[in-house]
Amino acid sequence: MPAPATAPHLAAGVRQSSRVVAVGAVVLVTLDLDLVDALTTAIVVPLALLPVWWSATRRFVGARTLLALVALALVAGLWLSAHASATHTVNPTYVREHVLLVAGGFAAVGTLLWARTVLPVRAVALAAAGGLLMRLALTPVNPANPWKYNYSYAVTVLALALVIRRRPRPAEVVILLGLAVVCTLNDSRSAFATLVLAALLVAWQLRPRTLGRHANAVTTIALFGGVAACVYTVGTTLILEGYLGESTQQRSVEQLETSGSLLLGGRPEWGATAALVAERPHGYGIGVRAGPHDVLVAKTGMSSLHYDPHNGYVENYMFGGEIKLHAVVADLWSRHGVAGVLLSAWLLGLAVWSLASATARRVASGLTIYLTCLMLWNFAFGPIQSSMPILVLALGLLLLPRAGVDAGHATLEERPA
Predict the structure, then answer these.
(1) Most buried residue, 100, 328, 376, 414, by most Cβ within 10 Å?
(2) Which domain holds residue 369?
């Protein structure tokens, strides 16, 4: 009878169609092409594919809890906005843009997780790199520093995606250190530190099996902290000694003299955040515009770091429309309140634990480590709007399959080419 003979062909056709859709979806997510109003391909495609990727999220540790916290944060943020409307201006445009950013962004994480169940991780990574390269072609070059503001991220993702294999390899260390050198020549302090940290963590996985064979996630997290502290200390010394360029040295010296710390000196917004949290611990809400008193509180907090807030930046950028605190965790708090803090805590814990677990098993790729380090940096020092694409790609490649669950190609271990 013909039916049994055609069934395998039909199943093969469905699998092939799924692979094609997965590649296209990942490309469109990282391309992030503007469509209409606040809608982009990174928002529309994942939301349209929700029936396709939803069931796949149960196969990954922490994914369903993450999505539940996102839903809670959105509800809480809208409630806070309604509550704040009695005393503050709420801009509907900003409300719509942020809701779409968060809902679409975490839907994109689900899309990438589903893609990992029908494609090898290397194919997902290369599709993501393809979208980033296409976006480069459509984005005007920033003449101030093309490498830092245009090419660095896409080139790094592509280079590391090309060498993903079953286990980390020395080639990944070479690529990461080579790109770190390029960053030193292009005044990119944070990128340099991120790449060096990623290279050290990849190198740790390459140690002989006879050394540290009983490493686990907890000891690996401690290792992360120690390595990060060393990178910061050595990096600060190199910067202040002028090894990373004269302009970088001069800017860093000024920040140290101002606040006593490169981190706080480079991100005085944390002074504003601390003051606003003390003033209004429950947050503000989505699309809420700060009032004169809020701006005064923020400026006072920034002044405590010996930063002069009377330069137009505070009024025009941080509080010119909705509240922007230049850190994912701070933005989630200001717009979603306590629910945003819970979401931030879960994101941070899930990312660190997933990476530590993969590193302890020696299966964390250089790309996954780089993206996670970059995500964690932006978590504390990057605005949510520009950080969301990095967060999406990092979580989409990082989350671990559940033990005992058939996750298809979802394992971090890539099949040999």
Answers:
(1) 328
(2) 2-398
Domain count, the chain: 1
Query: Residue 163 is encoded by which pair of tokens?
Result: 């060498």
Q: Give the integer Cα–Cα distance in Å for 138 and 156.
A: 18
What's the alpha-carbon Rg for the chain, to the nearest Å?
Answer: 22
Report if residue 358 sits inside a domain: yes
Question: Does a structural domain hold residue 268?
Answer: yes
| ∠ CA 165-171-177, rounded to 5° | 130
Is 287 within a domain? yes
Q: At residue 289, what is the residue type?
A: R
What span, in angstroms and rounded, lies between the C-alpha atoms of 62 and 127? 24
Rounded to the nearest angstrom, the gap between the alpha carbon of residue 125 and the centroid of all alpha carbons in its chain is: 15
Burial (CB count <10 Å: 0-12, 13-18, 19+), residue 410: buried
Q: Is residue 329 part of a domain?
A: yes
- Residue 285 structure tokens: 């809400």
DSSP conformational letter for 139: S
Which pLDDT tens digit goes with each residue over 266-299? Answer: 578 999 999 999 999 999 999 999 999 999 999 9
Amino acid letter, residue 115: A
Distance from the first to the final alpha carbon of the chain:
38
* Structure-block tokens of residue 246: 């004269």
Q: Is 379 helix (H, G, I), strand (E, B) or coil?
A: helix
d(C-alpha 82, C-alpha 80), whole Å? 5
